[in-house]
Amino acid sequence: MGDRVLDEVDDVGLGDAAGHQVGEDERTRRVQCLFELHVHHCPGRTGLTARRAENTFRNVSGTVKETFGARPTPPAALAAKVRTLAPTMTRSMQRVAEAVAGDPAGSAALTVTGLAERTGTSEATVVRTARLLGYPGYRDLRLALAALAAEQAAGRAPAVTADIAVDDPMASVVAKLAQEEAQCLADTAAGLDTAVLEAAVAALAAARRIDVYGSGASHLVGQDLVQKLLRIGLLAHTHADPHLAVTTAVQLGAGDVALALTHSGSTTDVVEPLRVAFEHGATTIAVTGRPGGEIAQYADHVLVTSSARESELRPAAMSSRTSQLLVVDCLFIGVAQATYDRAAPALAASYEALAHRHAPHDRRDRR
């Protein structure tokens, strides 16, 4: 349902009958009207739960505020936003985004027609890309690009790191990866909603049981979170078997927390157990690079991650793991702070239990 509403979002931002732009509150009101129309009049929607309806509207209205918001993206944050949103764009929009991020000065000098011709797209695609990046129109994007170019020329903003080539020397690989990882972490930190993060921490700290879902690289991040939570005395589980994840999700309910890690926001083996946990009353958290993805419909709290540009030698799973680990560490530290009286002695006990395994061999031999 969220996708159907988002398909009509462009019409929301077109303005009133006289052609004047409408404000953010009016745009959100119009989206809510579209949303209610789909909820109440579309066949098969009668079973939509109030929580899922609220989550869907939250994500749809958030997309509208981001796309048509009255507060444009600051120039310094433009490149970060391009890196974050590019994987969610169509291929034609990606070409526009890559052009403005790679050459802000050159792009700022082009008209909307000129940029469309340079990228092999249409004027409408250029305008849609500008809106997705947080600008009312292409004129506002050009101004931001000019400002970004000036900052880069003054040395205040790093250039977008180039992809790693097959024949790059190791020193270049190290430098490029270090830059990409640092930028990925900075982008994720800048985009994290601390209010949502605090709500997720509160839910985890009070949870009777915590189940964590992830697939592939995201499963490894989930394992990292689970072992951290176990060491401070919380009951946490993660399952590599997706069938087991679903069957255990059935056992969750009020007072439990289910947390899903999926960069794409649409991995079936991750979405399904979170949906089951959601439907059984557990508090649900999603850590994803696609806040408008399917996973968000079943998440009470959505934490958004960034990732570096995907390339042949560096798939999205590699860079998304870096930002996921940052979010996981933030959640863990927040929970440890909230449960310090219990967490501190539990952590000390776990250190003590393993201390002999880290002792020098001669010391262990004397025992």
UniProtKB/TrEMBL annotation:
Residues 76-152 form the HTH rpiR-type domain. It comes from Streptomyces luteosporeus. It comes from the Bacteria. InterPro entries: Homeodomain-like_sf, HTH_RpiR, RpiR-like, RpiR-like_SIS, SIS_dom, SIS_dom_sf, WH-like_DNA-bd_sf. CDD domains: SIS_RpiR (cd05013). Residues 200-341 form the SIS domain. Pfam families: HTH_6, SIS. Gene3D superfamilies: Glucose-6-phosphate isomerase like protein, domain 1, Winged helix-like DNA-binding domain superfamily/Winged helix DNA-binding domain. This is MurR/RpiR family transcriptional regulator. Keywords: DNA-binding, Transcription, Transcription regulation.
